[in-house]
Automatic annotation (TrEMBL):
The keyword Lipid metabolism does not apply. Belongs to the MreC family. The keyword Nucleus does not apply. This is Cell shape-determining protein MreC. InterPro entries: Cell/Rod_1, Cell/Rod_MreC_2, MreC, MreC_beta-barrel_core. Residues 277-371 are annotated as: Disordered. Pfam families: MreC (PF04085). Keywords: Cell shape. Residues 291-350 have a biased composition (Low complexity). It comes from Streptomyces cremeus.
Amino acid sequence: MRDTRESRLLLVLLIAVAFALITVDIRGGEQSPVDGARKAAAAVFGPVEKGVATAVDPIGNAIGAVRASGDDHDQLKALERDNQELRLRLGSDDRNQSRVRQLDGMLKKAGAGQYGIKGAEVIAIGAAQGFSWTVTIDVGSNDGIQRDMTVLNADGLVGRVTTVGPHTSTVLLANDTKFTVGTRMEKSDELGFATGQGDRPLSVQFLNGKAKVKPGDRLVTFGSRAAKPFVPGVPVGEVVRVDPSGGDLTRTVYVRPYVGFTKLDIVGVVVAAPRTDPRDTVLPEKPTPAPTVTVTVTPKPPGENNGNGNAENNGNNNADGNAADNNANNNGNANDNGNANANNNANNNGNGNGNNNGAGDGNADGNADGQ
C-alpha cells in the first residue's frame, strides 16, 4: 500500500473507530453491543489459537526448561560455594582449636614461671640462602618488643629476638648454629652451655668434666644478667646421649629440645622477667612409670617321692635311683647331677641287704652279699 494522503486518512479513521468501539465495550460491560461480535471472533479464531499454542508449547517448554536449568545450575553453584565455605570454616575451627591449645599451654608455662609475655604468631620463616634458622613474628617495637628478649611457647625455649621493626620482629631459633644459651641441669644444678646444631640435638658442654649425667636428665635456661637475652627456668630439653669424659675439664652431652622448630605457630615474647628464679618448676611433669609385675615360683620340697620309686632332689643335687632285685643280685644305678654324694639304700626282699654308694660323677656299683 502506497503512503498517500488517502491511506493516511483511512488509518486515522480506523484508529478512531477502534477507540470508539473500545469505549462502547467498556461502558456496556456484559451488555456490550460488540459482545456478540467478540464471541463470534472467539468461535472462529479459538481453534486457530489452540492449534498455534499446541505447536508453540514444546518450544516454550524447551525455553522454560533451559531457563529452569540455568536457575538450577546457579543454585547448584551456590550450594557448592556454601559447602566450600563450610569446609573452610570447619578446617579453620580445627586450626583454631589447635591454636587455642597452644595458647593455653603457653599461658600455663608463663604462669608457672611468672613470666610476663606478649603473644605472637609466626608469619614467615628465614631465607633459605642465609643458612640460618629464623622466623618472623607479627609483633614489633609498637608492641613493646625489644632486641634480646626470650621467646618461648607451650613446650619450652624457642629462641631470642634479634631484629625489631615497628610491626614485626625476627627470632633466632635455639637450634641455629650461632645460638648459645646457658643451662642448668635439674636437681644437680650442673651448669653448661647449649649450642644449636640444626636438625640434630643440641650440644651441651658442662663446666664440670666429672658431672654425673645420664640420658633422661632435663635442662632449663640458667638466665642472663638483667634477664637479657634469656630469663631463667625456661625448659630447654632432655639428655639423649652422653660422651665419655676422658679426663677432660668439660663434658659434652646431647640434648633433644622440647620445641619442634619446624612446626611453630603461637609463641610468646617475655617482656617482663620473673622476680625470682623459677628453677625447675616450669618443667613438665614426668610420666608415671608402669608398675612392674613380679612372678613368684614356689620350689618343690627336696627328696619328694612321686610314687614311682624315683626320688627328686631340687636342691643342688638331683639323684635318680633305680633298683632291681632278682632274689640273688641287686643292681643299682644312680645319676648325681649336683656337687654332693648320693646314697641309695635298698632292702632286699630275699635274704640279703644291698648298699649302693655313688660319688663324684654320679655312677655307682651295687654289691649285694647274702647272709
